[in-house]
Amino acid sequence: MASAMTRTRAALCAMALAAGGLATVPAAHAQVLPPSCVDGWQSETLLEGAGNLENLDSDGAGGFYVTGIRDGYLAHISADGAFDKLVTGLDHPAGVRVAGSSVYFLTGDGFAEAPGTLQRYDTETGAVTVLLTGLNGPNGLLVLPDGDLLFTNIGVRGGPAGISRYRPSTGEFTPAWSPVPLTNGLALAPDGNSIYTSNMTLSLFRIPLNAPAEAPVVAGLPGFVALPDDMEATRAGDLFVADHLAGAVYRVDPETGTGCAVITGLIEHPDPIRIPPDGATSVRIARDGDAWALYVTSMDGTLRRLRPPAGIDLTPADASRR
Questions:
Q1: For residue 87, what are the β-bridge partners?
Q2: What is the pLDDT of residue 318?
């Protein structure tokens, strides 16, 4: 019997292919090749063989917290590359975000059979606390400047849909804070007063924090994006988007919807495309010495660092947290 994660990814891929007008055809014909802006970008593999990496966030000290969706773990990767599973036995963990000594993470990604949860891992004590239960396939996770959490609900099994909001300081929970359906990744916009998200229609939304029911489409994602996953915005206005199906990371202008690939070929596509694919699942900006770099997880269990060419400002929109 296929696992819940496999069914989730297969369903999402099917939806993305349908939304993009693509049929189940050999990989060579399944995607329009994007413009390339890879010149000057340097890619380095920091970790491989870690199962199926779904998400990551910086620990603020050169390391990362990551989730392994198939193997069911929350792990820490230290600055020197040591890999340590902190919590195991989780049900399809997804988004992870760090706020001080708290590492927040979601379980029950996508179409998982069990209801999803929001949990907190305390880095000082190792204690794990379940904050919310009964969630509808939670996936993307974001910490807002005021400390509140936003998370997407990509499942269809019932319960709160759209984007939900949770306030750790009081426990206040707002289901369906924003009604945009089938959303995945989340990123804070440079103005600090709105967020970006995308959904399975390959549309990009900018949602004002003070008017979450309003979700104007900023621009369609570039036509070569096959299955957008998690994303990160820069202070300069660029949006970097992981493409789960294509195994690529794109630099997108949210104002125009134009973009280019800063890296491709993160997976070797079989013919026809394997479901679920092994492509990029999350992209984060974190410190690289005195500079910034992109860090990318993939479902093939690889963590990579992408260093930009001169002239690209990777300062993240939420640089105060880094």
A1: 74
A2: 87
